[in-house]
TrEMBL record:
It comes from Kutzneria chonburiensis. Residues 2-229 form the ABC transporter domain. This is ABC transporter ATP-binding protein. Pfam families: ABC_tran. Keywords: ATP-binding, Nucleotide-binding, Transport. InterPro entries: AAA+_ATPase, ABC_transporter-like_ATP-bd, ABC_transporter-like_CS, ABC_transporter_ATP-bind, P-loop_NTPase.
Length: 257
């Protein structure tokens, strides 16, 4: 469904991404993990159509991505909610561009706030919501206009550990219910293993796909304390090994800069 072919992105004479190849199947949950500055956000911006590659191709259903579109929903680390609108108003905002009539917009917005567990919080403004709740609103807003793909750039990074874990479970539940294709960025190894069907480990400067690892942990919600299991530990170690050298290399490059 999504295909990246030799995607390179230069900023002046600095190469942020160098020949990235990646395939994402319809309905797949792919996590990109890599050291700080390896180009994860750059890659997501390219997928969102916010920037264009210096060379190479990004294809969605075989067609080049040439700008932002309602087929892709983006969730950033910082909630990007409109402070003067209520939770309901923020979710409705995402629907305004789609031409859905107002009555239907309200009903849809309610439905998606319910899906992310915010039933009863429709009339609160962002400043009256916790960080986790704001991020739920952002997720509801992105889901409401029914994009095929959800692009998520470290959406839970600013949250405390407990809220992060519960939102990870919510996201898995939503993914199972809606069958969306998800590309999720993180630098957390545990988060990558817990969420991803496939984890793509990126190299540091320039960013390339070092390895893709298929994670086979079955249905997460059926296993109690999955993170403590042997298989989970094995995957975590595998990703850690792949990342370890890259993080060390990134730090050396940082010092030399
Ligand atoms: N507009 C820009 N102009 C110049 N350099 C840029 C620009 N955007 C990103 N970069 C550089 O490209 C590299 C990749 O940045 P990017 O934000 O994609 O990394 P990242 O992997 O998302 O980092 P982090 O995990 O710290 O968020 C960095 O070295 C950054 O300084």
């Amino acid at each position: 469904m999504i295909s990246l072919r030799g995607v390179t992105k230069d900023f002046g004479d600095f190469t942020a991404l160098d020949g990235v190849d990646l395939d994402v199947a319809a309905g797949e949950f792919v996590v990109l993990v890599g050291p700080s500055g390896c180009g994860k956000s750059t890659l997501l911006d390219l997928l969102a159509g916010l920037t264009t590659p210096t060379s190479g191709q990004l294809l969605l259903h075989g067609k080049p991505i040439d700008g932002p579109g309602l087929d892709r929903g983006v969730v950033f680390q910082q909630y990007a909610l409109l402070p003067w609108r209520t939770a309901l108003g923020n979710v409705e905002f995402g629907l305004e561009a789609t031409g859905v009539p107002r009555r239907q917009r309200v009903a849809l917005a309610r439905e998606f706030l319910d899906l992310v567990g915010l039933n009863g919080f429709e009339d609160r403004h962002p400043h009256e919501l916790s960080g986790g709740m704001r991020q739920r609103v952002a997720i509801a807003r992105s889901l409401a206009y029914d994009p095929e793909v959800l692009l998520m750039d470290e959406p839970f990074a600013a949250l405390d550990a407990q809220t992060r874990e519960s939102l990870q479970d919510e996201l898995l539940r939503i993914w199972q219910r809606t069958g969306k294709t998800i590309v999720f960025i993180t630098h957390g190894i545990d988060e990558a293993v817990y969420l991803g069907q496939t984890v793509a480990v990126l190299t540091s400067r320039p960013g390339r796909v070092k390895r893709t690892v298929r994670i086979d942990l079955g249905n997460r919600s059926e296993v109690r304390d999955l993170r403590s299991s042997t298989e989970f530990g094995r995957y975590r170690h595998e990703i850690w090994e792949l990342l370890h050298d890259e993080v060390a290399r990134a730090q050396r490059l940082e010092v030399a800069r």
